[in-house]
Write a structure and sequence with these properties.
19% of the residues lie in helices and 21% in strands. The protein is an alpha+beta fold. It is built from 11 helices and 18 strands. It folds into 2 domains: 109 residues, Rieske [2Fe-2S] iron-sulphur domain (Rieske Iron-sulfur Protein); 289 residues, no CATH class. Bound molecules: FE2/S2 (inorganic) cluster (FES) and fe (ii) ion.
């Protein structure tokens, strides 16, 4: 439970808010490279941290992210002409480069130097692994990008995905670090005896409650959830969170699974998730119909501020819930009647309302990770706000080199010590078999 003021402090991200200022110290994933696919392609409306921005790829291939309102008299640069290394406002022809410099002002006398005095807000961008990153912060020279394994693989650009949900970023993120909902929301219609024997899928269904341990890490926090495993061993399900909005969720075998997701606020009530897995041996089974990780069908993108990457299943169609399937209580979707793990999560997190009032909740022992993450966010935002302390990770890209997943350990092993190397990204473990996870 949070006080109303604490809830406000860590959920609001607009310009000038404490959390908004905090997040602006980091590079943030802003859009997919494919949204501005080729030089001089169509500009795109991008809502990011409550700011209306226009993305465009200039003639030289560089991506600009510029304020929506033209600095002259405010026409939307979305309608601009993307031509000859700049975006030209079509109202009176002023033209801006990717850095926001006004490079042409054809409606003013040729001898005027007015254009030297005009500058649009434009943020530095950097492309990596199919993602256009943006830096909206105060530094003249931005910090380094985080060392995110899932964004740095040869195939990262091919596997990156974006998904928009209409609610606050924090309640979506909290769903990622709450392991016990999985046995109900996602797998409540499944039986342990129907799973591949000896796999993690079997053992996470044999006992739904788990013994839960949370630790602070350099980049944020991690949890281990212990259940009985085979031959007297323990089955540990391990997941991580890194400042400010990165999660590394646990399906998969620890040591083989690369990547995670970023829950990036578009504004206070809309969130774009960037899933950066890098492909490879990330998951033992490929997403396909009938598989819980089936990728939900998407609506065609529109050019609206909130028209990008919207699933067909939405709050206004009740996520296409099938009550008959829910009554049947069998199979991947049998507990909820909602198709797909991602949409089952979405129904829960958006159904709380746009920004859930956490003063109303009742937290139990398995909410330990949620509690830890909130406490660390509150402390770090306050330290930044009151003393200007640089947020964790901003200048330390290596703290993002983490992995999550499941592992069988001897019953008396200390999971933190025993998994230290397996939790390190950029290390190959060919001896490990991703199939040990099972399909869940
Ligand atoms: S409003 Fe853009 S050039 Fe006048
Ligand atoms: Fe979930």
């Amino acid at each position: 439970m949070l006080k109303v003021e604490e809830n406000e402090l860590i959920t609001r991200v607009g310009p000038g808010t404490p959390m908004g200022n905090f997040m602006r110290e980091y590079w943030v994933p802003a859009l997919l490279s494919s949204e501005v696919a080729t030089p001089d392609s169509d500009p795109a409306r991008i809502m990011l941290l409550g700011e209306q921005l226009i993305a465009f790829r200039d003639t030289n291939g560089k991506v600009g992210l510029i304020q929506n309102n033209c600095p002259h008299r405010g026409a939307s640069l979305f309608f601009g002409r993307n031509e000859e290394a700049g975006l030209r406002c079509v109202y009176h022809g002023w033209k801006f480069d990717v850095e926001g410099n006004c490079i042409d002002m054809p409606n003013e006398p040729a001898e005027s130097d007015f254009k030297q005095k005009v500058k649009a807000v434009a943020y530095p961008t950097h492309e990596r692994g199919g993602v256009v990153w943006a830096y909206l912060g105060p530094r003249t020279t931005p910090p380094p990008l985080p060392d995110l394994e899932g964004n740095m693989q040869p195939e990262s650009g091919q596997f990156v995905r974006a998904t928009q949900l209409p609610c606050n970023w924090l309640q979506i993120l909290e769903g990622d670090i709450d392991t016990t909902h999985v046995g109900f929301l996602h797998y409540g219609g499944l039986k342990a005896e129907d799973q591949i024997q000896g796999s993690f899928s079997e053992y996470q269904l044999r006992q739904k409650q788990a013994h839960f341990e949370v630790i602070d890490t350099e980049g944020g926090a991690a949890y281990g959830a212990r259940r009985p495993g085979p031959d007297g061993q323990a089955y540990w399900r391990i997941a991580q969170w890194c400042f400010p909005f990165y999660t590394f969720t646990p399906p998969g075998v620890l040591g083989t699974k690369k990547g995670g997701g970023a829950r990036v606020p578009m504004d206070d009530t809309h969130t774009m998730t960037f899933t950066m897995t890098g492909g490879g041996r990330n998951r033992p089974t490929r997403p396909q119909p009938g598989n819980p990780f089936f990728l939900q069908p998407m609506q065609p993108n529109t050019t609206d501020w909130f028209g990008r990457f919207r699933p067909v299943q939405q709050p206004d169609n009740d996520y296409l819930i099938d009550r008959e399937a829910q009554r049947g209580k069998t199979g991947f979707n049998g507990y909820t009647g909602i198709t797909g793990v991602g949409m089952q999560d979405a129904a829960m997190t958006t159904g709380m309302g746009s920004i859930y009032d956490r003063s109303q909740e009742h937290l139990g022992t398995t909410d330990a990770m949620v509690i830890r993450v909130r406490r660390r966010l509150i402390a770090a935002v306050q330290a930044h706000m009151q003393h200007g302390i640089t947020p964790p990770g901003v200048d330390d890209p290596e703290i993002y080199r983490v992995r999550s997943g499941g592992v069988f350990l001897p019953a008396d092993a200390d999971w933190v010590e025993a998994t230290r190397e397996l939790r390190q990204a950029f290390v190959e473990h060919p001896e490990l078999d991703p199939a040990l996870n099972g399909p869940l």
